[in-house]
Every structure is written in C-alpha cells, then in structure tokens.
C-alpha cells in the first residue's frame, strides 16, 4: 500500500507538478493542489496584541479602558468586536488574489488554519453559536463560481466544529468594487446592500461573521447591522486580512 501511494504521488508530481503560489518552488511528495509551501506558510505573521478592543486594528500602545483606536473613539461599528488574522500585504495579498481571481479555491482550506489558530487565541469560542459568511451578490457569485468568504467560513467551521449558515444574509445590491473608494463612498456603497432572510435561524444567537478582507469595516458593519436588527445577540467579525 505504502509503495503504491508513493508511486501515485510520484506520478501526480510528473503530470501535475505543484508549485507554491508564493515562491513558485515545486512542492514535492504531497497530494495537494493550490498550496503555499511550508516555508512560505510559516513566514506569514499573525497579528498580535495590542489591538483595538473594538475593530481589531493593530495598535502600538495598550488600549486603556473603553478607548480603542482613534477611529473607534469617535465612531461606532454595529459589530461587537472585529478581528483580523494578518495584514493585507506581501504573501497574504498574493494568496487572497490567487484564491479570488485565480480560482485557487483550495487555498481557503490551508489559510483557514491560521484563522482557526487565531480564534483559539483571541476569541471566546464558547460564545459563538454560528458562523455566517459575508455573501456575494448572486450575479457576482455566478461570474466567480464561488464565494471566497463562504469557503473560508466553511473550512474554519470544520476546524472549530461549528456550523455555518449561508441562508442568513442576502446581498441584494451588486455593490461595485470597493477598492478604489474612500470611506464615505464605501459606506454609501454598502448602505442597504444586505438583508436578513431567515431571522429565526439567528434570533438570540452569537454570530461569527467571516470575510476575506477588512478595509474600512463598512461591509462587516452593514452585515452586523442587519443581523442585530434581525435579533442576533452578538456579532463578532473575523477577516483573514486587514
Ligand atoms: Zn513557497
Ligand atoms: Zn478600532
């Protein structure tokens, strides 16, 4: 059996040589597709405290009392707390790009390990009842063929032994890409973009909202607003990067 397995891996290496998404070095002897090599993966730095106790922004000072980051002192997001696992730069940028636009969907499984480790360190998982991914508009979903946030949420849920529910939030507005917009425009862009479909599924529950990137927080804010209005007890937000 062992010999056969080795032979199959050897054949697979020959027919579909796997290269690391980041450094392009061949990944040998493993039946994996769309992966980051162990060297590169080990170099991804997870965000460590101190971070803002509200939005999760990395700070270079310990927040005292209710004071969070400069933004949260004057503004209120609808989510109770947000967390971002790592910074949106370097390899993480490459990975998210390959996942979203290069359709390397198996990367979601690999990076969900980072999200899971982060959750164990900084979230009270006993408080989480349900994981909800930020949805794509159905037209965008059809174009892309998948929702990267849903893939991340499902992989994370498997690792944390929690359940996901994609039947909760609906994106009714096909918002334009947020990347070139400033904060005000982003807020306008996502205003009324989401609606809650099955309020009974989340009533009184604590939700962990999952998305790939935290930019200004307006998307997560809009989702949290809708979830709270539909009766969610708490809404925590987790993104892979920020
Ligand atoms: Zn590599
Ligand atoms: Zn903050």
Note down, in words, how this protein is organized.
With 242 residues, this protein is α/β, with parallel strands linked by helices. The chain folds into 2 domains: 1-38, no CATH class; 44-241, Rossmann fold, CATH 3.40.50.2020. The chain contains 9 helices and 8 strands. The chain has helices at residues 2-15, 38-43, 70-74, 90-100, 107-122, 138-144, 148-160, 183-190, 218-229; strands at 18-19, 26-27, 81-86, 130-133, 169-171, 194-196, 206-213, 234-241. The strands form 3 sheets. A 4-stranded parallel beta sheet has the order 3-8-7-4, sandwiched between helices. Strands 1-2 form a two-stranded antiparallel sheet. Helix 5 (107-122) crosses helix 7. It binds zinc ion (2 copies). The site of one zinc ion (ZN) has 8 residues, from helix 2.
Question: Which features characterize this protein?
Answer:
242 residues; alpha/beta; Rossmann fold; four-stranded parallel beta sheet; two-stranded antiparallel ribbon; 9 helices; binds zinc ion
Annotate the secondary structure layout.
Blueprint lengths: L1 H14 L2 E2 L6 E2 L10 H6 L26 H5 L6 E6 L3 H11 L6 H16 L7 E4 L4 H7 L3 H13 L8 E3 L11 H8 L3 E3 L9 E8 L4 H12 L4 E8 L1
Parallel strand pairs: 3-8, 4-7, 7-8
Antiparallel strand pairs: 1-2, 5-6
Helix pairs in contact: 5-7
The protein binds zinc ion (2 copies).
């Amino acid at each position: 059996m062992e010999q056969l397995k080795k032979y199959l891996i050897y054949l697979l290496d020959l027919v579909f040589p796997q290269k690391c998404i980041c450094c392009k070095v061949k990944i040998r002897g493993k039946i994996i597709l769309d992966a980051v090599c162990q060297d590169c993966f080990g170099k991804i730095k997870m965000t460590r405290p101190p971070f803002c106790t509200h939005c999760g922004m990395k700070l270079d000072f310990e927040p005292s009392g209710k004071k969070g980051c400069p933004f949260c002192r004057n503004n209120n997001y609808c989510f109770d707390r947000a967390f971002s696992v790592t910074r949106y730069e370097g390899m993480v940028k490459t990975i998210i790009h390959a996942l979203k636009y290069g359709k390397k969907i198996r990367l979601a499984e690999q990076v969900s390990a980072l999200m899971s480790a982060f959750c164990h360190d900084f979230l009270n998982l006993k408080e989480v009842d349900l994981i909800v991914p930020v949805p794509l508009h159905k037209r965008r979903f059809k174009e892309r063929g998948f929702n990267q946030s849903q893939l991340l949420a499902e992989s994370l849920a498997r690792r944390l032994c929690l359940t996901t529910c994609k039947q909760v939030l609906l994106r009714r507005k096909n918002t334009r890409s947020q990347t070139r917009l400033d904060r005000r425009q982003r807020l306008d862009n996502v205003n009324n973009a989401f609606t809650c479909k099955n309020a009974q599924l989340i009533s009184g529950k604590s939700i962990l909202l999952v998305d790939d990137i935290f930019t200004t927080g307006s998307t997560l804010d809009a989702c949290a607003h809708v979830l709270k209005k539909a009766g969610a007890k708490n809404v925590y937000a987790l993104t892979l990067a920020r």
